[in-house]
Specification:
- This protein is mainly alpha-helical.
- It has 16 helices and 4 strands.
- A 4-stranded mixed beta sheet has the order 2-1-3-4, sandwiched between helices.
Length: 394
């Protein structure tokens, strides 16, 4: 029977748990790291993204046509809730200067003879230029401009061109695209970002707190005393409070997004709740492994920041990794946040069958088992080496 699984494991587990809770009570800074700081950050994120949808993005319009139709199109664009027509410069060069000064995020150019060509049935393009360095903002402005122009085009086709050319001569385009937005029809940035930022921030705090707890025992020379003869039970007892408290924060975040800001959970709420302890356990086990590998608290916590802290950028939710370099795809697969985000999106928004989410759930369990077992073995070996020799009686 393994050293951590002997009949005295329950007592060793309870002793380690009491030891960690006692340390929280004595160290107010570490207590704040697992209580006050996560809650304050969650409240801050809620306040920052409470606007949900981008509205009234400033755009400039250059009207080189100067007709009644171009002025009507300008009013239609300004009436769109997503953009606000804040400037009508005389030339494209003046509009570009405003774009470079970040006074506007997009430019609409109505070329000369636009209305005349449209009434003749000739192509009459309207040009939209947006600032792709602010990608989400620029794309949102361009999308709202395109929607406004398409709505005005349909109205003009019916009210003006149809009367002039005759209804019999109007023909619909032979091939069209009808795009339907799934799972986030309001295109809410709150429902897109909060489900990603909550677990990303909480997992980093959980890993730092757990890594600091393991590194503290090594730093203070108490590793052998703490682990004793049942290292597995002692490690589990130290992990439990971190996994438990951050799982509660994660569940609160999911339920807030689903039932306060969204339309509920589309799939299984129980799978989402089950994923919380597995996700935070995997992150804490990564911290355990880094502390055990590096044998140094500062270096181990630096590795936590390098991996868990950058996980959001490599999770595939913000930037695509489908055609990314091999290193990026491998790094993506090794991060707990990647598996968790897949499960969360499937169950929170997409309403996927529960069997589909068993794979990311299994990946989280495998990560926790491999990283936790590796870290525990290395830490137990280090404790044996640090233990004072037992005197042999004469």
């Amino acid at each position: 029977m393994a050293a951590g699984l002997t009949p005295g494991s329950g007592a060793a587990f309870a002793a380690s748990l009491r030891r960690e809770l006692r340390h929280w009570r004595e160290d107010r800074w570490e207590l704040a790291l697992v209580t006050l700081v996560p809650l304050l950050l969650m409240l801050l994120m809620m306040a920052l993204f409470s606007g949900a949808v981008l509205r009234q993005l400033p755009v400039a319009l250059v009207d080189l046509d100067g007709s009644a139709d171009s002025r009507a199109l300008a009013r239609a664009i300004d009436a769109s809730p997503g953009v606000a027509l804040v400037a009508q410069p005389a030339s494209l060069q003046q509009a570009q200067a405003q774009l470079r000064a970040l006074e506007v995020f997009a430019i609409v150019l109505l070329p000369a003879d636009m209305s005349r060509r449209a009434l003749r049935g000739e192509p009459a393009p309207v040009y939209a230029f947006y600032n792709a360095t602010y990608l989400a903002t620029g794309q949102s402005a361009a999308r709202d401009i395109a929607d406004a122009v398409a709505a005005y085009n349909a109205r003009m086709l019916k009210e003006r061109i149809g009367l002039q050319a005759g209804p019999a001569r109007l023909r619909a385009a032979p091939v069209t695209v009808q795009a339907t937005v799934l799972y986030n029809p309001a295109r809410s940035y709150e429902l897109f970002l909060l489900p990603l930022i909550f677990p990303a921030v909480l997992s980093l705090l959980a890993a730092l707190a757990a890594g600091g707890a393991f590194g503290r025992e090594r730093r203070d020379g108490l590793l052998a005393t703490w682990l004793g003869r049942r290292p597995w039970a002692a490690i589990a007892g130290k992990l439990l409070p971190y996994v438990a408290v951050f799982s509660l924060y994660g569940a609160f975040g999911v339920l807030y997004v689903a039932y306060v800001r969204g339309d509920g959970v589309a799939g299984s709420v129980w799978l989402l709740l089950l994923a919380q302890p597995l996700f935070y356990l995997a992150c804490c086990c990564f911290a355990l492994l880094f502390i055990a590998l590096t044998r140094d608290m500062c270096t181990g916590l630096s590795l936590v920041g390098l991996t868990i802290g950058t996980a959001l950028a490599f999770s595939g939710a913000t930037f695509p990794v489908v055609a990314a370099p091999l290193f990026t795809r491998v790094w993506n697969a090794l991060l707990p946040l990647t598996a968790y985000v897949q499960l969360q999106m499937q169950q929170l928004f997409m309403g996927s069958p529960w069997t589909v989410s068993l794979r990311p759930l299994g990946v989280l369990a495998l990560m926790a088992a491999v990283a936790g077992a590796g870290g525990a073995l290395l830490l137990a070996r280090a404790a044996r080496r640090a233990a004072p020799p037992v005197p042999v009686p004469a």
